[in-house]
Write a structure and sequence with these properties.
Length: about 220
């Protein structure tokens, strides 16, 4: 029976032994099916130059087996919530750039979700995970993770563009509104015209932000 339990762990399952009056009475082999989209999601993340690791509280053999099925080479199993958090801290200390993102859905994932730079919880996860995470994916599929990352990247690009637009506008328009052209042209900008120009500046930023509605994240 012990050999069967070990084989179950190696095959991606977690074995739970039961005892009666101190004597081994049976074993339960428990396994979660791998999500069908997991391999494609991992491959897509790696193709973008992202490092993907797996942290799990399941048995180490089961964790490594599941990781091998989806293309993850850095996998650690048998971790407690505190050990997951410590592992994240080590990863953060060793990286040089970029944000560290943790994706989880269980109660034991809550500390790790809070410790990561960005915690992403699956919408079907435990309530404590949803409350702790920075981002909650309402759809239950893993394919929502790369979509969220692409949308976040597009959003940051638009934010930088808006900051640049506002900076250039203020650098050019404020001196003109203050009368910088008067010595050259003898012209003073009307306050009403300056107010209208400020409105146009705000509208340009809003229009640029609305481009996010057409961003292709699939």
């Amino acid at each position: 029976m012990l050999a069967a339990g070990a084989d179950g762990g190696a095959a991606g399952a977690t074995t739970v032994f039961a005892a009666v009056d101190g004597r081994l009475a049976g074993a339960f082999v428990i396994a979660d099916p791998v999500r069908p989209e997991a391999s494609a999601v991992v491959a897509g993340l790696r193709s973008r130059g992202l490092d993907v690791a797996m942290l799990s509280g399941d048995a180490p053999d089961a964790t490594r087996h599941v990781a091998s099925l989806v293309g993850i080479t850095d996998a650690s199993g048998g971790l407690s919530p505190a050990e997951k958090t410590a592992h994240i801290e080590r990863l953060r200390a060793g990286r040089h750039e970029g944000a560290l993102v943790f994706v989880g859905d269980g109660i034991n994932d809550a500390p790790a979700l809070a410790s990561a730079d960005v915690g992403i919880a699956m919408g079907s996860g435990a309530d404590v995970a949803l409350e702790t995470a920075d981002v909650t994916l309402l759809s239950g599929g893993l394919e929502a993770v790369p979509r969220a990352l692409r949308l976040a990247g597009a959003t940051m690009a638009v934010v930088r563009q808006n900051l640049l637009l506002a900076f250039l506008y203020n650098v050019l328009a404020i001196p003109i509104a203050a009368g910088a052209l008067y010595p050259l042209l003898g012209h003073v900008t009307s306050p009403m015209l300056a107010a209208a120009a400020m409105t146009l500046s705000s509208l340009s930023v809003i229009a640029n932000s609305l481009r996010l509605r057409s961003v292709a994240v699939d």
